[in-house]
Amino acid sequence: MALLTILFSLLSLLLILVASNIVKSHGMALREATVEDLQLAFKQNRLTSRQLVEFYLREIRRLNPVLKGVIEVNPDALYLADKADQERKAKAPVTHSNLHGIPILVKDNIATKDKLNTTAGSYALLGSIVPRDAGVVTKLRQAGAIILGKASLSEWSHFRSDNAPGGWSARGGQGLNPYNLLARPCGSSSGSAISVAANLAAVSLGTETDGSILCPANLNSVVGIKPTVGLTSRAGVVPISPRQDSVGPICRTVSDAVHVLDAIVGIDQIDIATIEMSKYIPKGGYAQFLRRDGLKGKRIGMVKDPFFDFGNDTFLAQTFELHFKTLRREGGILVDHLKLDNVGEIFSSAAENTALSAEFKISLNAYLKELVTSPVRSLADVIAFNNKSKKEKVKQYGQNLFLTAEATNGMGNAEKAALSSIARLSKNGFEKVMKKNKLDALVAGDPFDILSTPLALGGFPGIIVPAGYKDGVPFGICFGGLRGSEQKLIEIAYAFEQATKIRKPPPLKF
């Protein structure tokens, strides 16, 4: 009896250790491990890709029933891990890649030609078969990354209904913020941010049309990079707008995000925008810009209205004053008292929504028609599918954005006028303040995620880094720049991150 009591106590202790996430392999703590940590452990034979994948699969089984950050796990993940381990033993050329043997979650609107579904969170696409891997997935596989599974998202990248909360999809349920289950995770790349924040994967991919990488990274205390539109391929991604869509990393650190970015940028003949945008990719890649002194001499613009308008919130105001001091101490030149002359019009104009509605219908119909098999072949089919569905959750939040898009008829006079307005808003707003003041970046204290729209309108890049926590809910600081300015933004963000080291893992007390 005493022996049984001892055994039970030992088993209870083991369960507590696992539940508290103090999980090690060959003496290495895997929680919060970076890509560089993992590669060093591989090299020193302290860790295998199989052990790493098994760790993440355990964490997904433990935490995902509550967080709902992962919509589907790759049944071949362990096979792919074994393959990576064999390649490492054979010293294959691919093992020199920073992502070799690293498990990654990709957002469920990014096609994978394997046993995984690609559904954008919708039952309408469940069981459909894609013609090929998305361009970014092809590059990930070439780098030796392990596709661990699909991250959940706001259904149809939050372009089905504006009544649905961020992080919700009929197929995946409601994603939750791991720092505070009552706080929103934001969308549409909610699952990508939730999952890396909670250590359900090493790194992840998200997509952004307007805020869908920056906002979830902001509220889940992780790093998000929204690249210049066309720097990464959108081929094989369930689209909203080829003019604004971008694929980028969501990770726990700037260095991890940059290693993923290095793997996915470059020419994809199926997405012709990548041909022109490849001119911005620096020789030797982006990792060379992970510089501790990266802030030195950088001109960083501050538009206090609206990007630092915290009202009566003294905590946020004081926090960002400390961050300004850090930016200056690290060599940054803050150019203050700047204004966006058309700031009111940027945030009140209907031009973006007008253009996106028409672009969505055109590009989604083209995507659906190219599927090998699918229950739906057009936006009209998807609307009809949702109307006929007997699943109550499919109808839960309606589909008003779908209906608005379906009512469009190509790029008519109204849409062309909207595109002209968008170009003017960008030129006379963000572009003007950047060029006139010779800025390397514009900074925003982004608890409210409002820099994303100026960046979206011009197809500009942005990077967000953890900046603090208020009442347990994270918020970030965002740096945006002109097209092709990723290397400067990386230098700034990395130097800020290393000077502050604000991120901490979520408590996960459930």
Automatic annotation (TrEMBL):
Protein name per Swiss-Prot or TrEMBL: Probable amidase At4g34880
Report the leader peptide range: 1-19
Family matches, as Pfam families? Amidase (PF01425)
List UniProt keywords, sorted A-Z: Signal
Question: In this protein, which residues make up the domain named Amidase?
Answer: 52-444
Matches recorded under InterPro entries: Amidase_dom (IPR023631), AS_sf (IPR036928)
Task: Write down the superkingdom of origin.
Answer: Eukaryota
